[in-house]
Specification:
The chain has 9 helices and 19 strands. Helix content is 20%, strand content 33%. It has 3 domains: 162 residues, Gyrase A, domain 2 (2-Layer Sandwich); 81 residues, Alpha-Beta Plaits (2-Layer Sandwich), CATH 3.30.70.1400; 121 residues, Aminomethyltransferase beta-barrel domains (Elongation Factor Tu (Ef-tu), domain 3, Beta Barrel). A 6-stranded mixed sheet has the order 10-11-12-9-3-13, with helices on both faces. A 6-stranded antiparallel beta barrel has the order 14-17-16-15-18-19. The protein is α+β, with helices and mostly antiparallel strands.
Length: 406
Amino acid sequence: MTIDPALRRAGQAHIATPRLETPFHSRLQALSTTHDWYSWAGYQAPHSVFDDELEYFAIRSTAALFDISPMVKYRIRGVDAERFLNRVTLRDVRKLRPGRVHYTAWCDDHGHVLDDGTLFRLADTDFRLCCQERHLPWLADSAEGFTVTIEEETEALAALALQGPTSFSVLDAAGFSGVETLKPFQLAAFDHEGGEVVISRTGFTGDLGYELFAPAAIALSLWDRLWQAGQIFGLKAIGYNALNRARIEAGFIVANGDFTTAEAALRPDRERMPDEIGLDWLVDPEKPFFNGRDAILKARQTKSLRHILVGLEIDGNIAAEHALVYHRKSREAGIVTAGIWSPLAKRNIAIATLTRPFGERITDDLWVEIYALRELQYQKMMKRAKIVPRPFIKLERRTVTPPGRF
């Protein structure tokens, strides 16, 4: 087989093309000692910055700064913005007051989840939708007949997650006066360098935490403001590996990690309804019609839901991520989508998707098949698992208002 030289050069150019850099990249690159990068939505993002373990303990013991700029962000505005978002998302947007945030999800017409994310109500007719995957064509098609404008602001808007018990103290020391009044899922705007920083009391760690959104032009000065104020409070920059541990402890799910989104699914049996991934509580059947409503309610009525997402506690201390789950060690019941040994809970925990009736009517005698590397050989181990509630940890400081000072 011969390859056209032009195609070969094009392929090499593609490989050599660097990933996009977030507005905070220069600061992260200067701090990085592991140089462990991955691609998040086309952006160069750190798996770790200096040490996975110490980064995790920064989240739980002091404060951690994580660059969430690659998160997809849409600005949705107009007189019909509320009605439009109420049509496409599961929760009742009419109950979301200006200055508040809620977690939500959205489905196709068959009731299969397209994605989940957070919806920020910045003003009466002004919203920001943050999510994992890109949905601009779908949003634009769905907006037919509504007086709204939809703009992707992922590139223009820098964002940081500031998480951990001293995160409030960092913001307070940085001069963000009034941030102490923010309750969970509340937001406010603050001045910075002639621009506006929107700070919300939200996060993906199950801990006290905030998310900050600012124009890319003032991103570096915002980082420097936080970094300088945070040194006395143990502020560290972290990568995804540490954040992932914290989110598993909090029982949070990741699109195309713990479930496959409807647009990414290659087979029909990979698609999931909200009730099959623990998002049944988001569905508000009393609000006006929304995408997937009839299919979701029909599946509930006919009891035709095929899967269930559960929390597991597993014997031993070896993480069971991607392990198969069995009933009575013989019949396959599902798969672990995320698993760690939790330093905080002191338990071997996991999130798993099971095929009903396992996890619903049949909840006992469950086992996971773990392959552990021992002396350069993989050893198969069957470990007992039991279904437990999520979240695996619950921290009082996450909701205390005003937060404690350090």
